[in-house]
Amino acid sequence: MALSEDAVVSLTANLHALTIQLTKGDTDDAQLTSYPASTTTESGAATPLTSYPASSASRPSSSSSAPSLTASPLDQPKQLLPGAPVSPLFEIRDTPTAGRAVFASQNVEAGALLWRAEDLTLSVLLREYRREVCGQCFAYDYGRDLPFRDPAVGFVFCSQGCRDTWRREAGDLGLRAWTAVESLVKKRSREEDNMVDIDAPKPDEGAIKQAWIEAETQAELIRAARMAEQPRGDEQTPRITKQHRKAVQKALQAPIATDVLAFCAGGVLARHGTAPGRWEAVLSLAVDETPYISFKDLDAHVQTYLQLLAVLPAELLPQTTPETLRTLTSRDNHNAFGIRSLEDEGSEFFGYGCWPSASYFNHSCGPNVFKKRDSRVWEFRAGKDIAKGGEINITYLGGDEQSMSRDERRALLRRNWGFDCGCKRCQEL
Q: In what residue span(s) does the SET domain sit (predicted)?
């Protein structure tokens, strides 16, 4: 059975454009960080998309959380994971059945602000929305093209201020990288097939490992050709053969999966330029060892790796490795949040991003916490009174759980996030 990308977004709650998809909450939903497998959908939950995604993380500091939520050392768990949220209102613990989870460390009143996740490390805007969504703050004007364009890098912005901020944060290296990626997309044919066959076999760990190994012969040739382009002083320039040139041309002439390309390029830039501790925060997130939803998805990621080797600035080649891309995809798949429109109850799914500190909240079909995106920040507020010791949960189903039967909810969660929901609401029926 084949589904459109829109169906996939609500089917996988995410955009696994270096992973997979999400559901729709106040705007999006969050993903499980403690369960294996699956894809994110654009329904608004925090899940990575079909094989595109993104992300790196930063460890929240006192400035990355609400001032009123600053915690003293005595309030914090004894062992703090890199990038994990810290607050006097809650703590993160391991659980017997759901991996890591967040628990109230004191009574919390309804409406209380629990956390502000400001650690966006990597985001991906779907190609079809690149002219309508601000590349910096994700503003959207009901499908109208935004006025401030930067065609060389392939992004648009809602204001000159957002454009200037984006360019400043990207820096010279980022601008050169995005220009190279955009130039490749414009020159080459693109992979336009947005249909996802949910019955297609999913590659296992062995198949994934083998696919990346088989790509290394071509990758080594491309890397050698690129390094030969660089000034070497008095050293002798390595001899580049026809075989090297053919490897580069083969990568450049292959079809392009544009959203996977954006995810992987953003991931390489994130690893290269993140602040101290951010990559460690990504590594601390839950891992999906089989994040690719199909062999086609796996092939797209491997091909994207070769294309990035061929076009990215030479300074980024040390980070352009299978290890970088596989790490990003395996973490993003359970930890990405969908980026949706704010004006129309999230009816438009633009892409996804990774906020590591936000990915520690687990799912419940009867959530006690609600989240809302404000530009590049996620806010989490108590939807009801929460007693000390109670688990703090969000929904991955974006509000749809209210009208769904238990069987429908559990089937969707199993298919998209790979777990059997055992929340209180599911156990009551």
A: 88-397
Q: Write out the DSSP string of 8-27.
A: HHHHHSBB-BSS-B--EEEE
Per-residue pLDDT of 357-384, as tens digits, reads 999 999 999 999 999 999 999 999 999 9
pLDDT of residue 187: 87
- CA–CA dist 399, 210 (Å, integer): 40
Q: Are 335 and 55 in contact (CB under 8 A)?
A: yes
CB-CB contact of 286 with 359 (8 Å): yes
Tokens in use for 217?
């012969």
Distance from C-alpha of 34 to C-alpha of 391, rounded to nearest angstrom: 14
Higher pLDDT residue, 400 or 10? Answer: 400
Q: What is the mean pLDDT of residues 150-173?
A: 97
Burial of 345 (0-12, 13-18, 19+ CB in 10 A): middle
Region of residue 55 (left: phi > 0; alpha: psi -120 to 50; beta: else)? left
Which sequence spans correspond to the domains of the chain? 1-230+237-429
Between CA 45 and CA 26 the distance in angstroms is 9
Kindly state the tokens that stand for 239. 């001899």
Give the integer Cα–Cα distance in Å for 212 and 186: 26
Distance (Å, whole) CA 334 – CA 418: 10
Task: Please check whether residue 221 is in contact with residue 228, taking contact to mean a CB–CB distance below 8 angstroms.
Answer: no
Residues 206-225: what's their mean pLDDT? 97
Indicate the DSSP class of residue 91.
Answer: E
In single-letter form, the type of residue at position 6 comes to D
Look-up: residue for tokens 């190609």? Answer: 127
Rounded CA-CA distance 239/248 in Å is: 15
Q: How far apart are CA 414 and CA 420, in angstroms?
A: 6
